[in-house]
Amino acid sequence: MNRRPPERPHRGLPRALLLAALCWPGMTPADSPAGAITINADEATFSQSEGSGIYRGNVELHQGLRHLSAEHLEVFVNEEGELVRVEARGEPLVLREGADMEASAREMVYRVPEQHILLLGQARIRHEGRTFTGSRVEYDLATRRVEASGDDGERVRMVIPGRQREGEESTQ
């Protein structure tokens, strides 16, 4: 009796998707850690003709100090197989880069060639002690420029930690 193993839609993903670490949010190419990317999810699909991969359900991406968790993750590659865009959504959606950077939102779009992260819906980014919150937070990795905006009367907030005197506690 010849039994075929169950098909796995993620098998045969282009190497560019699995080696996307050099272009992942929170790092400049010079700072990117080496090593494989591991993506775990309840379901995965890849369309070679469309150049996209979709991961659904308890998605976790790991590489070095980098960790992304979301309910839904989509990756897009160009005709050359290079990663050009990453989209994630779900609650909670959290991106961590070691102890230096943490971002959270309901949705995230990362445009790789532009090195630009867009966080939407209860967006928050903490980088090197500074915190930015708003309905929409944009972060340019190359220039380290942050732009935040609010919706429907919501205001943006930026927290810059002050120098602590001996014996004082932080009031963040």
Describe the structure.
This protein has 172 residues and is mainly β. It has one domain: lipopolysaccharide transport protein A fold, CATH 2.60.450.10. Helix content is 2%, strand content 52%. It is built from one helix and ten strands. Strands 1, 2, 3, 4, 5, 6, 7, 8, 9 and 10 form a ten-stranded antiparallel β-sheet that branches. The radius of gyration is 18 Å and the shape is globular. The termini are far apart.
Provide keyphrases for this structure:
single chain; 172 residues; mainly beta; lipopolysaccharide transport protein A fold; ten-stranded antiparallel β-sheet; 1 helix; 10 strands; 2% helix; globular; disordered N terminus
Shape: globular
CATH class, anyone?
Mainly Beta
CATH architecture annotation: Sandwich
% residues in beta strands: over 45%
Low-confidence stretches: 1-35
Instruction: Please summarize the sheet with the most strands.
Output: 10 strands, antiparallel
The first-to-last residue Cα distance is: 66 Å
Q: Order of helices and strands, N to C?
A: HEEEEEEEEEE
Query: Would you report the number of β strands?
Result: 10
CATH topology name: lipopolysaccharide transport protein A fold
User: Quick check: average pLDDT?
Assistant: 76
Structural class: mainly beta
Helical run tally = 1
Estimate nothing, just give the exact number of structural domains.
1
